[in-house]
Amino acid sequence: MYLDERSNVLLKEILRHPNISNAKLQEKFGLTRRQVDYSFQKVNQWLEEQAYPKIHRSANGRFVVEPDLFQLVEKKDEWGGGRSVYLV
Predict the structure, then answer these.
(1) Which domains does the chain have, with CATH numbers?
(2) pLDDT at 1 over 80
(3) Is the pTM of the predicted complex or chain greater than 0.85?
(4) 3-state SS, residue 6
(5) Could you tell me if 7 and 85 are in contact, meaning their C-beta atoms sit under 8 angstroms apart?
(6) What is the DSSP secondary-structure string of 11-71?
(7) Which residues neighbour 59 within 8 Å (Cβ) at sequence distance 6 or greater?
């Protein structure tokens, strides 16, 4: 599985700004709450496949990112048609 462009962008944003809220992501990228939720379902599925901890959301809409995730770096995915994904 590879991450689509929107999921990839949102993951990058969370890793750069772990204190960002769901509402701020919606505003910044012009997305609905459902679009953000769907993308994070995909991100969490991808993280699980890569044996990384999932990103959780707190009650106040903030994201909870485990420290292990900050070691991810952006690279080109060989199987994803040249799209960017996060790999160790």
Answers:
(1) 5-87 (1.10.10.10)
(2) no
(3) no
(4) helix
(5) no
(6) HHHHHH-TT-BHHHHHHHHT--HHHHHHHHHHHHHHHHHTT-PPPEE-TTSBEE--GGGGG
(7) none
